[in-house]
Amino acid sequence: MKLTKVIGIVSYLPDDPVLREIRKRKVSETIYQCICIFKLPIIVIAQNWKDFNFYGDNVTIVRYDKPLGITGARLALRNYFLDNTTYDYLIMFDDDEVIVGDSKAGTKF
User: For the whole prediction, is pTM greater than 0.85?
Assistant: First the structure.
């Protein structure tokens, strides 16, 4: 029996326009790195993403209009994972992770 894995990312975009653009770029980069390196489905807890979307195969965006806080966002991710998926393992990241490696390293991880 093969155990299934999913990546979970908690993300918050601030209201300040300059910081918001920086965070949009960073979260896009993090998601893209996860897609390329791990080749696993991704769930994003997307707080305050009112004007932002990320489209990709196997990327699920779960939107929250208001901030949940870091603990609340992690709890929301855990609950979504447990209540709405059939995956065996959840690998959590923040939206500003720096992920280095290639798909071979991702598979090994």
Answer: yes
Q: What are phi and psi of 14, to 5 degrees?
A: -70, 165
- State pLDDT tens for residues 44-54: 999 999 989 88
DSSP string of 33-101, one letter each residue:
HHHHHH---EEEEEET-TT-----TTEEEEEESS--HHHHHHHHHHHHHHHH---SEEEEEETT-----
Instruction: Please write the tens of the pLDDT for every residue from 13-25.
Output: 999 999 999 999 9
Q: How far is CA 72 from CA 43, 78, 101, in A?
A: 15, 10, 30
- Cα separation, 84 vs 36, in Å, equals 24
**φ, ψ dihedrals at 54, nearest 5°:** -130, 125
Nearest CA to 96 out of 23, 45, 46 is that of: 23
